[in-house]
Amino acid sequence: MSGEHPILLCYDGSDGAKEAIEVAGRLFGGGHAVVLNVVESLSPAVFYGAKGDATFPPTEDVPLHVPSLETGRRVAREGVAAAQTAGFDASPLVDITPHGTSHRIAEIADEYEAAAIVVGARGLSTLKSIVLGSTCHELVQHARCPVLVVHRNREGTDIGERE
Q1: Which of 19, 55, 111, 155 has the most neighbouring CB atoms within 10 Å?
Q2: Across the strands, what pairs with 39?
Q3: Listing from the earlier edge strand, what are the strands of the sheet with 88-97?
């Protein structure tokens, strides 16, 4: 399916994301994949506004993203290892955004001309989904390529082997 266009594997380190990569490996038979970890981080304006400081230092003087970026890189490397185990030729990508994760994932999929986006569903309750929003739901609404949403296997059997 992917040909020269990669599969975009969204990975946040959760069990659902790991399971999504495993399912994608079985469905797509490997190929090239980009393992994406999107880190939502406060913008300097929000950060300094919360501290009550109306002045903003130059962006390069604000090390707000350093811990987030290092964590994102570690998580992305873990995702690459999972993708390689699932049969993909994978490379990591970490992106930091102060905006919605789903919109940024859709933009990155466009930039990479992804054949598909694979994401694990967290299984939020209806109320939590309404209050917190659903990255998967928003992604399905905004992405221009196919989106595979993999729900966690709750029965303890392999998703690919259910009857």
Answers
A1: 19
A2: 96
A3: 88-97, 31-40, 7-10, 116-120, 147-150
| Tens of pLDDT, residues 11-60 | 999 999 999 999 999 999 879 999 999 987 665 554 444 444 444 444 44
pLDDT of residue 70: 83
The structure tokens listed for 42 are 């406060």
38 contacts 102 by C-beta, under 8 angstroms: no
Q: Tell me the Cα Rg of the chain.
A: 17
Torsion of CA 46, 123, 22, 68, to 10 degrees: 20
What is the Cα–Cα distance from 39 to 53, expressed in whole angstroms? Answer: 24
pLDDT for 76 equals: 95
Please name each of the domains of the chain with its CATH number: 7-155 (3.40.50.620)
**pTM greater than 0.70 (yes/no):** yes
Region 82-87: mean pLDDT is 97
Q: Phi, psi (5° rounding) for residue 35?
A: -90, 115
Task: Name the H helices within 4-153.
Answer: 15-28, 44-50, 66-85, 101-111, 126-132, 135-142
Q: List the structure tokens of 23.
A: 């399912």
